[in-house]
Task: inverse folding
């Protein structure tokens, strides 16, 4: 069957499911089973053709359509922005579109994204304490970035998909815990992130049938969170946690996820895309180099001032995050049942239905961005949704740190390092991996 037909037939079945769920109940065993079947049916297409899936449903059905476990997908910029601003927001334990069904992979601690009420407020207070201001910590951050790039220089190449996540893991553990991970720990953490998709399988499949894959990752998580408790920063995090009656298990696991999922996966994907953009656009790279020369002489580490004055790099990062958002979906739950118009039909939805916001399509919405697929630094970025918008309780707490880290990489890469050539720069819009040119390699990578 042709892809388009498959995607649209799948949606017709979703419409029928909405009526069926109204009869059999959303959270009854049969309702849950039906939704799980649909989750994997749509998921099997999304895995291989995620962008086509979104665009075909949007173009043929409308800005709102059903997807995966009977979730209501919102695809326009205005809808996604509105969804993000709902307060308070009720969440399930979902990582965007992915439902975390194998809680064993997370040592039975929900993602902070899946927490609500006091637990969520407390965990966020700890995050905000743990994440440094990149300008205030510019010297330390500069040293960490330089150390990471020096390592890549000794291997004479920088591989976007393989090396950047490892660099980010080392840097974030230093910034958050002042601990230095061994090569083995970094490799194990990178494997943990790669294995995340295994947490969307039913728990018994992930934990027992696939234990040869999941058990080493889970053991690594257990060992690493014990190390966190030895960190000189630990007591200060637990002091905040105590104010919200949160325990060590919750804090260590939540920070593990903050570093591995939100921090490392998100920031290395965006940094990879920024490097890809700079490789492809010589005149932009020249302009960025000119800005770097104006703010930093290349001696010592760049100052906080250099980070703040890198305004062109800032725009490059924001526009790259618009075109290639590392986080593609946000998710929340409805608190009431109701009806929704989808494809011209009134469809019932039940309390607890997931509302998904598609950041990728929002960022390329022609109603919001002129020539949305073009790279254009003159845009108004004031309401960019890539970091979950601004001014509400669920915004990304790592926004300024992630931008600061990427700026620091740009400063070092273009001023103190060089490469002879690079391989093809290609963003994969089919396989549902990170939107970043994972296979890009900077060859002949060396110190200047
Ligand atoms: C240092 C790097 C980063 C850290 C430490 C970090 C941390 C976090 C954390 C802890 C959350 C969950 C907040 C909560 O539960 O209330 C979050 C949410 C989010 N982050 Fe980040 N983040 C980083 C980088 C990024 C980047 C580079 C992007 C994209 C450009 C991004 C986009 C988002 C989005 C869209 C959400 C909301 C997800 C949702 O609500 O479902 N983050 N981030």
Result:
């Amino acid at each position: 069957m042709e892809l388009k037909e498959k995607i649209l037939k799948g949606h017709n079945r979703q419409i029928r499911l909405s009526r069926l769920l109204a009869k059999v109940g959303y959270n009854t065993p049969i309702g849950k089973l039906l939704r799980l079947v649909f989750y994997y049916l749509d998921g099997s297409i999304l895995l291989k053709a995620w962008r086509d899936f979104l665009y075909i449903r949007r173009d043929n059905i409308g800005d709102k359509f059903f997807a995966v476990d009977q979730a209501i997908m919102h695809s326009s910029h205005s809808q996604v922005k509105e969804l993000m601003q709902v307060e308070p927001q009720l969440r399930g334990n979902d990582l965007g579109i992915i439902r975390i069904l194998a809680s064993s992979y997370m040592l039975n601690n929900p993602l902070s994204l899946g927490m609500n009420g006091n637990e969520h407020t407390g965990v966020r207070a700890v995050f905000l304490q743990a994440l440094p201001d990149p300008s205030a910590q510019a010297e330390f951050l500069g040293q960490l970035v330089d150390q990471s790039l020096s390592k890549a220089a000794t291997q004479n190449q920088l591989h976007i998909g393989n090396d950047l996540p490892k660099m980010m893991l080392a840097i974030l553990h230093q910034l958050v815990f002042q601990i230095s991970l061994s090569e083995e720990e970094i490799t194990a953490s990178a494997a943990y992130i790669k294995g995340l998709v295994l947490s969307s399988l039913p728990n018994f499949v992930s934990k027992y049938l696939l234990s040869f894959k999941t058990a080493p990752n889970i053991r690594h998580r257990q060992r690493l969170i014990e190390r966190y408790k030895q960190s000189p920063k630990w007591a200060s995090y637990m002091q905040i946690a105590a104010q919200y009656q949160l325990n060590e298990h919750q804090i260590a696991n939540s920070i593990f996820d903050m570093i591995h999922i939100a921090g490392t996966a998100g920031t290395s994907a965006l940094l990879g895309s920024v490097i890809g953009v700079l490789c492809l656009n010589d005149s932009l790279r020249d302009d960025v180099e000119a800005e770097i020369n104006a703010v930093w002489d290349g001696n010592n580490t760049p100052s906080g001032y250099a980070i703040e004055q890198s305004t062109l790099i800032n725009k490059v990062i924001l526009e790259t995050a618009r075109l290639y958002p590392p986080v593609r979906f946000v998710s929340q739950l409805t608190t009431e049942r109701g009806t929704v118009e989808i494809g011209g039909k009134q469809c019932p939805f039940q309390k607890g239905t997931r509302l998904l916001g598609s950041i990728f399509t929002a960022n390329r919405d022609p109603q919001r961005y002129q020539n949305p697929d073009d790279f254009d630094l003159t845009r108004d970025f004031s309401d960019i949704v890539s970091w979950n918008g601004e001014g509400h309780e669920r915004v990304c707490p790592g926004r300024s740190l992630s931008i600061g880290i990427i700026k620091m990489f740009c400063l070092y890469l273009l001023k103190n390092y060089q490469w002879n050539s690079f391989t093809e720069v290609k963003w994969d819009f089919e396989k549902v991996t990170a939107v970043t040119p994972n296979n890009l390699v900077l060859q002949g990578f060396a110190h200047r």
